[in-house]
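Re: beginner question about structure tokens

> Can someone show what the tokenized structure looks like for a real chain? I only ever see the sequence side.

Sure, here's an example I had lying around. Input first:
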Amino acid sequence: MRKVLMLTLIIGLFSNLFGQSKKNSSESSNKQELRLEFNVMNNISLEKCEKYENSKRYELVENGVYLDSKDDSLDKYRMTISYELESDETNNQYPLEDILDKYLLHVSDFYKTTPNESTKKFKIELAGDLKGISTAKREIIGKKIFNREYIGTDGKVYVDLIIE
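And the corresponding structure tokens:
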């Protein structure tokens, strides 16, 4: 897809050089080629897992956030979420990968979920420091999250993480 976008931008550049109006070139590349939404994560909610009932290992810090006493690193805080991914058959690691990067988190556990043909349901445990986990919880629970392409000031196509 990125190759198609780059080719479109190059063709638009040549069109500008050889007489086609800038307005047509700009409209076609922005309205027809940029992807406004793909791989949508929605129905994001906090989950409570049975393993958190082990008070010798896990301590409730705030609603949905637990301290893992067996973890000596700074990333000893845990939060389990579930979400649905409406995939457009592109790389399914996004937007989750961007969320992990934004809040400096990692996936510390995966849970089995019931398959559904229309959507893909996931349940994962996220780990990180308290600030990252708390901020992520506040900013993503109940939201719709996806990636959107845009053209930067340098004319290149970039992807942005959108949380609504």
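Each token stands for a local structural state, so reading them left to right follows the chain. The CA atoms of residues 109 and 128 lie 12 Å apart.
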